[in-house]
Amino acid sequence: GAVVSQHPSRVICKSGTSVKIECRSLDFQATTMFWYRQFPKQSLMLMATSNEGSKATYEQGVEKDKFLINHASLTLSTLTVTSAHPEDSSFYICSARVTGGIRAFFGQGTRLTVV
Amino acid sequence: AQSVTQPDIHITVSEGASLELRCNYSYGATPYLFWYVQSPGQGLQLLLKYFSGDTLVQGIKGFEAEFKRSQSSFNLRKPSVHWSDAAEYFCAASGGGADGLTFGKGTHLIIQP
Fold first, then answer.
1. Which of A38, A89, B31, B110 could link B12 by a cystine bridge, Cβ 3.0 to 4.6 Å?
2. Cβ A102–B96 below 8 Å, yes or no?
3. Stretch among A47-51, A53-57, B87-91, B96-100 having the lowest mean pLDDT
4. Burial class of B76 by CB neighbour count within 10 A (0 to 12, 13 to 18, 19+)
5. Which residues of A fall within a CB distance of 8 Å from B46?
6. pLDDT for B32-68, tens place per residue?
7. What distance in Å separates the CA atoms of residue A68 and residue A56, rounded to the nearest whole number?
8. A103–B49 CB contact, under 8 Å
């Protein structure tokens, strides 16, 4: 089956530093990848849609300069949380849609803690 | 605006009893519909999905869901729950194309011995 690998699974960083999260589709090509954020005991909220070779589309209220998304290849999208603050602590999950397909497959998520 | 509503924040069911988790959606057209399960600190596991066709959808772990267009609902059911079913359940919808998923707020399922 289609596998999406997300790395790292957990990261702790100091306030003011930047953190990069990778999302890879291991056995399929994904023109479109999605990034979600989940605060404790809450639902998942779509942050942005990442399309290979073009700029990401951000949902309303998501700061594009803070959450930098790069989708340089058909198998890799990255989310960089810049100048992280404690309020950015959250569970970040990516999903990747098979090119031409309907269903998207989820990574295992990244637990970010900013101290 | 597109939305997915899960009216029940918590549900407690006895082991062996039947289960129904409610989900309603509000979309311009019939969306693609999904149910996911999430254990604490874990990622999402897809239980089942509805794209078109037969309105009764079978999923993994003995779950099924029924799409009812007239009620804009996609309720999840299981005839007999097991203690291992305790988790957070999310209903989600997508308009397709380049759309991401819109998630409901989730239902926390508690299984009583």
1. B110
2. yes
3. B96-100
4. buried
5. 103, 106
6. 999 999 998 888 999 999 999 999 999 999 999 999 9
7. 9
8. yes
Q: How far is A69 from chain B (nearest CA, A)?
A: 15
Nearest to B43 among A49, A104, A106 (CB): A106
CA–CA separation, A115 and A61 (whole Å) = 23
Nearest to B40 by CA among B106, B101, B104, B112: B106
Beta bridge partners of A20: A80
Residue A18 to chain B, least CA–CA distance (Å): 23
Chain B residues within 8 A of A49 when measuring between CB atoms: 98-100
pLDDT at A102: 82
Q: Are residues A96 and A77 in contact, defined by beta-carbon separation less than 8 angstroms? A: yes
- Please report the sign of the dihedral spanned by the C-alpha atoms of residue A114, residue A76, residue A6, residue B36: positive
Query: Rounded to whole angstroms, how far apart are CA atoms A45 and A27?
Result: 26
Give the residues of chain A that fall short of pLDDT 70: none
Complete DSSP assignment for A22-45: EEEESSS--SEEEEEEE-TTS-EE
- Are A43 and B49 within 8 A, CB to CB? no
